[in-house]
Amino acid sequence: MKPVVIGTTLAAAVALCPTTSAFGSVSGSPQPVPHAKAVANAQSNAAQAATSLGLGSDEALVVKDVIVDANGAKHIRYNRTYKGLKVIGGDFVSHADKAGKVTSVTWNRGLQKMASLTTAPRISKSTALAAGKKNAAAKKSTAGTAKGDLVVYAASGKPTLAYEVVTRGSQKDGTPSELHTFVDAATGATLGSRERIETGTGDGVHVGNVTLDTTKNASGQFQLKDSHGNYTTDTHSQGNESTGSGPAGDLYVGADDSWGNGTAGKTSESPAVDAHYGATKTFEYYKNVQGRNGIWNDGRGAPSRVHFGSSGAYQNAFWDGTQMSYGDGSGGTHPLTAIDVAGHEMSHGVTENTAGLDYSGDAGGLNEATSDIFGTNVEWYAANAEDPGDYLIGEEIDINGDGSPLRYMDKPSKDGGSKDCWSSTLGNLDPHYSSGPLNHWFFMAAEGSGAKTINGVAYDSPTCAGTPAVTGIGRDKAAKIWYKTLSTYLTSGSNYAAARNGAVKSAKDLYGATSAECKGVEAAFTAISVVAGTEKCDGGTTPPTGDNLLTNPGFESGAVSWTGTSGPITNNSGRPAHAGSWKMWLGGNGSTANENESQQVAVPATGTPKLSYWIRTDTSESGSRVYDSAKVQVINGSTTSTLATYSNVGTNATYTQKTFDLSAYKGKTITVKFSATEDSSLQTSFVVDDVSVTAS
C-alpha cells in the first residue's frame, strides 16, 4: 500500500479571517457570476428568440447554457417545451455574432419547428409504468420504484407524446440504476431508454504523499473542504448499493492537518484523501485549463462520499448528477478513489451540463469517451508522481488482475471489446465500447499515429482502412478543441459525424481555418473512418492573435499558455476587462498574497520588438506609503530586468496602454512576467489585459 500522509493547508489563512474574494475586494458575499447573468439575460429574451427562429406558438425555450467566445460571438444552448411538456431531444444551440445576429443553429437531429401534436394520452399511466418496468427487466436491471410523467419524445424520429417512466433499482452488474424509459402514450410501445447513472468499476489506488487544499471550520478544526467548495464525507459503510441512495455522510474534520496513513479499510481516512485530491484537481483542471468554473460553471464544488455501501465492500464508483460516491472495493481494502476515476466520473457532470449527450447510440460512445479524454487530461494536469500521466484508462485499477488497464486510447481494441474505427453499427454497442473511436481520435490528434514512447509508456496507434498517418497537434490543444466542441457545437443526440463537424469548427474558431491544428483534427477523424462533413479546413479567418507572438494574449481562453499562481486570470466581474471578459487580475485580495503569471516567447532577430499591455489599477489604501506593489519583468536566462513597477500610490482606474522596447532581446527566448505582492490588509488591484509582443 502506498503511504498517504497529508499535510499543508492551502486555504487555512483564508479561514482565519473574514471571507475574501480570491480575485477582488474584501467581501462577505461572492461577486456576481457573469455566466449566471448571461443565462438570465438569454432567458429574458427566450420568447423573442423562439419567434425569430420560427418555432411554433406552443413551443417555449429554456436556456441551459451560454458560451461567449473571445471575439464576442455567443452560443446559447436551449431546451424546449411543447404546451408545457418537456421535449426530449428538442435541444439545440443558436450561434450569434458579436452584434447578436444569429449566424447558424445546431439543431438536434434536424428538429426545428414542431408539427401540431396532441397532449392527451390514450393509455393509462399504470400501463406505462408496467412497460417501463418490463424494459428494465429486459435490460437485466432490477426495477424498484417507478414514476412517470408525460413528455414529448423527439430523440429518435418524429415527435411523439410519451410517458417518461423512471425506474430506480440496480443494473446487471449490481451498480445503481436510474433508467428512463419512454413509452408511446398512444400504443404503449417502448420508444427508447437511457441510463441516468454513469459508473466506473475497479480497485482504487492511492495518490501517495500529496498536499491537500483544506480549510478550517468555525471551531478552528481542519476539514476536507477545499477553497473551491469541494468536500469529502464518510458514509460509514451505509448506502443502498442497488439504488445509489444513502446518507450525505459526515464531513471529515481533524485537529491537525495530517490525513491518512496509507492504509485502506472501512474506517481509514486514506480513501478520503484520494477522493478529495481527485475532486480538487478535476476542478482546477477545468478552471485553469478550460476556463470552466466547476461542473456547473457557477463556482460550486461537488461533494464526494467515501466508504459508500452497506456491505463495506462495494466495488464501484459513480456520479449521480450531484455527487461522487466511492465504494471500498473487494474485501473493503481496495477503495475506488484513483485520480482518473474522479476525473472521468466528474466529467460526466460536465457533459451533463453542456451537450447533455445521451447514453445510447453514437452519443453514448461520445459521452463515455469525453470522460476518458478529460479524465486522462486531469491525470496529466495533476502530475502526481505515484500516478503519472498516460493514455491508459484505469491503469492503476488492475481490474483484470494482470496489470492491464481498463481501456487503451492509442488502440482501443486491445481491451477485447472496444472498436478502433467508426462504423454504422457502432451505436449498437455498450457506450464503454463505442467510445473507442473517439478515444482513438484524441490520441492521434494529440500525439499522432504510429509507434512512440510517451512519459515512459510505449504506444502504437494505427490509422483505419489505410488512411494517411496523422501528425499530432499536442494534448492541450486537442483537449481545448474537444472542450469547445462539447460545450458549443454538440447536442444530446450528436453522432460521430456531428462530432467531426463540431471539432473542425472549434479548431477553426480557436486556431484558424488554415492552421495545423485544424488540419490535424481533420486528419485524425479521417483516420478513424469518420468522413468529411460540411465543415472543412479551407479558407476562413486566421488565428485572432495576428502578428502577436504571445498565445492567448487577451486571456479569453482562460489560463491557457500562461504559467503562474492559480486565480489571477479570471472572468470575475469585480473588475472590467479591457476587451472581452477575461483579464489578469493581480492583487485585489485584501490579505497577504504573492501572485504572478508569465509566458515564454521567442523574440525574432529582426525588426523592432516591443512589449505592450493595458493596465488598470485601484486601491483601498490611502496616503503615500507603498504597501502593495506589482512588477512587469523580462527574464533572460539567469537575468531578470524590471520594466515597470506599480503600487497603491498613484493608481489609475482607467485602462492605460504601456509599451516597452525589447530590442535588447533580439534573437533570444525570454519570459515576460507580471507579478504582485499585497500586505495583510486593504486591497490593491493591478488588472492587465491585451498583452502583446510584436516585431514590426
UniProtKB/TrEMBL annotation:
Signal peptide: 1-24
Polar residues bias locations: 225-245
GO biological process, alphabetically ordered: proteolysis
Record localization: Secreted
Cofactor dependency: Zn(2+)
Domain FTP: from-to ranges: 60-106
Chain segments carrying region Disordered: 225-250
GO MF annotation list: metal ion binding; metalloendopeptidase activity
Ranges for domain Peptidase M4: 199-352
UniProt keyword list: Hydrolase, Metal-binding, Metalloprotease, Protease, Secreted, Signal, Zinc
Biological function: Extracellular zinc metalloprotease.
Protein name: Neutral metalloproteinase
